[in-house]
Structures are given as structure tokens and as C-alpha cells.
Amino acid sequence: MIVVLCVLFFTVYLFTSEVIRVDIASILVLVLLGLLTLVPGLENLVETKHLFDGFSSNAVVSIMGVMVIGASLDRSGIMSKVAHLILQYGGGTERRVISLISSSVAVISSFMQNVGAAALFIPVVSRISNRTKIPVSKILMPMGFCAILGGTMTMVGSSPLILLNDLMATINHSLPAEQQMELFHLFDVSPVGICLVAAGVLYFLFAGKFILPHADEDEDKSDIHEHVRSSYNLDPAIYAAKLPNSSELIGRKINDIEQEEDIHIVALQTFGKNQLSPVRDIKLVSPTTIAIMGTEEAVEAFSKKYELSLGTGEELFPELANETSGISEIVIPAGSELIGQTIATALIRKKFGLTALAIHRGDTVYTEALQNIPLESGDTLLAFSSWDSYALLRRDRNFIPVTMNYPKDTTRASKAKYAIFFFTIAIGLILFSNFPLSLSLWVGAAGMIITGVLTAEEAYLSISWKTVFLLACLIPLGRAVDTSNTAAWIAQETLAVMGDVPAWVLQACIAVIATLATLVMSNVGATVLLVPLAVNIALSTGADPAMFALTVAISTSNSFLLPTHQVNALIMGPGGYKVSDFMRVGGGMTILFLVVEIVALNLFF
Beta strands 273-276 and 355-361: pairing type? Predict the structure, then answer.
């Protein structure tokens, strides 16, 4: 027990300090548990032959299937139809739009990862905001919070709920027959989840106008050029100039020119050949025509310094017409491989054909020396590119394209019927067959891949391998906490401190502990560590252990106070939110969640 407690505290330290990535931390813990079995007296700490069983567990394989199905629904264009329906029935009224979007994302989030549902709806929100002129900041936070809440509506809506049955089954092996817990079915948790979603929607409908950030009423975001001017202080116009043979720019690298002059060379014409977003190490030669963008001051200073006669870019570069290229906004999501890299080291222009014009982070906009700024989760890139290059980003999990009103469309609308069919098959198997959850989901995922809704490469990219390793590597730790009687000992000590209190008070305390834990570590980690504890507390007091375990799994979704949850980090940049916005709006949501959760659990279970 002492060894397990030490490993437990070490794990919590790694998660909270973030000295290394959480997935690497979980791998380290897994290896540590295996090595400890070499110490005399600790041979039975874990069964080494089953140490890696987590990678084939029902929960891990199910989460992978959910991710593939979610990506398939996105690729088939079903979400665009959802946006159209919301616009059709929501009109331009802010309250109706918020309620429709929030309810829709909650329902979708109940069948796929909530961060995936939120990612799907960011372009939807952007499109609706452009058409209705409702500020994005008024819609995006309600949408994000309801995506998190929607994950509590079914047993496949969030990683903790998918994991819960596996954890309960493992604990059942060490319990006598009369104390074993009955596992939950797909919609058993739905009454509680529906109450939470309803509370969230009502919270924003009645309190939203008082607590949500207020955008500038004069700002017109329906036009991308006006949005670029007002939000990024950039001139959206593209200027072009032919360089004379005597120009000082001849012979210099694009990278050096851009860094020194704070302008962006977005296109290049040399010997009649045009290049959009040319790579930075190219040297300018004669004859050359360049197309540039930047702030009005920087463009004016650049033209005066080098005595250039500027014209419009479209006159000299047909590729710069709106139907072939343009300005877009792109979000860096949690889990992106670009986090920690700079624009230069990530080779954004060379690999993806993007010319980064600005970075929006929180309430700060960076327009200078972008090459030296490390990217963070939630950053919004303002970029120029061809629409073909931009469309390819939808296949790359390192980006979330926000701008949707561009001419190209890479969705496979003809495959929508297959996506709906196999999604229905997967849900039907979960409800009406004895198939394991993992097999039911992968029947649907495999069908979508075979029928071409998603390619095999896209399916691999849709899976968050960070989440897979995090979950699979923590499962042995959860088993060690339970089988070593560590959880039972902690439960006894907790009850001794609290004394004789009603079961619902203990349940509320567990919910608060799980809520605090998920703010500083992953919801999966909090679930693995706290479910055995909750079950042992329930058994010691005669309460329902299954309900206490469910309390933990639901409470780990109560993550609104800080932008530490993946969904919150995702919407922070596009919504222009600050940490104080999450504390103000999320504080009330956190308390409301706890109250509704405890009341609903005791009402329905």
C-alpha cells in the first residue's frame, strides 16, 4: 500500500506539474509499475503478463471507434446540413441561435468525443455568426460548455464514462457476489445528462447577457476584410510591385526581408512563373514581381524605402483572385504536434502552403516577428493561402480551419447516406445486441472506411493517440490501487475524518474532489484514481457503489472554471476569451453542475 501510494502521488505530481507531457507521464508510470515487481516483496504489485492489456481493453478500443465515427460524420458534410437547419429554424435571434446550437452540439457530443463535437461546430458557429451578425463570443462559450455537458448523456459520450464499466468490472472481481455492481447500459445515464444539458442551456439563456463577454457592437464581422482590419489591425488588401533590376531587394532572401520590414511576401512571379506562399529561403532574382501584405504603416514604409510603385495584387497575379485564394483563420487544437514550435521551425509555409499574417492568443494579437513565437493550444492563426491548400488542412488533425465561406469544398456529400447508415448500425448494435461496445462501434467505423466516407489514412489521423496511450497506461495503476487495498484504506481514513454523515453528503464530497482533480489533471486520470476510492467509501457506508462510481465519471466533466479542458482551450482563441471570462462564466456553471448532478443522481438512481 505504501508503494502504491508513492506511485499514486508521483503520478499526480507529474500530471499537475506538467514537467513532461501527460501521455509520456502515463507511459513512465506503466514502466515504473512493471520495474517495481523486480523488487523482493513486490512481485504481486501488478501482473506483468497483463501489464499492457489496457491497449486492448474495451474502453480504449471503444474510444478509438468513437473518434473514427466522429471524423466520418464530419467528412460526409452532415455538419454543414446541421448548420443550415440551425440557421433555417433559429433565425437571427440570439437566444434561439444559442439554444439551438447548444442543444445540437450536446446531442452530437453524446455519441462522440466532446472535443470532436466542439471542433465540428467551430466552423458552424463562425458561419452562423457571419450571417446573423451575432458576435462569436456570445455563441462559442455556450456551445463549448454544452459540448462538455453533452458527454454526460450516454455511456459513449466521454472517455471517463466509456472507461467506467471496465473499471467497475475490474473491481467486481475482488467483491463478493452480493456486493458486485451491475454495469451501465448506453442510455442509463441519459436522465442525468439531459438535466445537466437543460441546466446549461437555461443558464446561458437567462444569465448569458450578464456574464458572457461583450463584443464591440460596431464591429462588422460579416465581411472578412473588415474583420481583419478591426481584429488584427492589418490591411487585408494585397499589393504587387515589379522590382527594378537595380532594387536593393534583388539577391536577398524572403525570410530576411519579411523579418526586417514586418511585411509578408504572399506571392512571387519569376520568369513568368507564379508561386503562392513562396518558401522563405528563396532569394529574389531579376526580373521579379512580388505581392505583399501587412499593416498599412508597414506596407507604406516598405514601398517608400525601396521606391516601389504598388498596384493591386489581382492585376498581376490571377491566383490572388478571391475564388482561388484568400485570408482565413485557423485554430491550433489541443494535441497538435505544432504546439511548442514556431512558425519557422514548423515550416508552416513550406509544408502547408500558409503565409501566417498574425497570431491571436487570448486578448493579444501578434503581427510582428511571428517566426519566433512558440505556438500554443487555442492560438488562432490568420493566414493567407490558396483555397486548395486551405482545404487540405481539414484532413490534418494539427489544425482546425475556422473560415468556412470559401469556394472549395472537400466534404464527401455523396457519402452522407453511408455515414448515417453505419452510424445507425453502430448505435443499433449497442442497444439491441450483446456485442461489446468496442465491437459495435468498430462495425460502424469499419463500414465507413470500406464505403469511402473516410480513407484509411484519415482514420488513423482522426485517432488521438495521446488519449489512447494516456488511458491504456493508467489502467494498470487503477487496478493496483484497488487490488492492494489502497483505495479501501483511503476510504476508511476519509470516513473516520468526516464522521457519521448522510450518504448524499459523502457523494457531494466525492463530486467536489473529482471536479477539483479534473482541473489539474486529465479527466481520464482523475477517473482511474478516484473510482476505486468512491466504491470503497460507498461499500463502507452501505450506499450504492455503482452510483458513487458514476458520480466520479460524471463529475470529471465539470471542467468550466479554467481553460484547462481541451474544449475550453479550443474555443479560447476563436472566441477571444480571457482566463477571467472562464472564471466568471465557469464559476456559476461549476456550482450549477454540482447541484443538478447530485439531485438528478439521487432522483433517478
Answer: unpaired
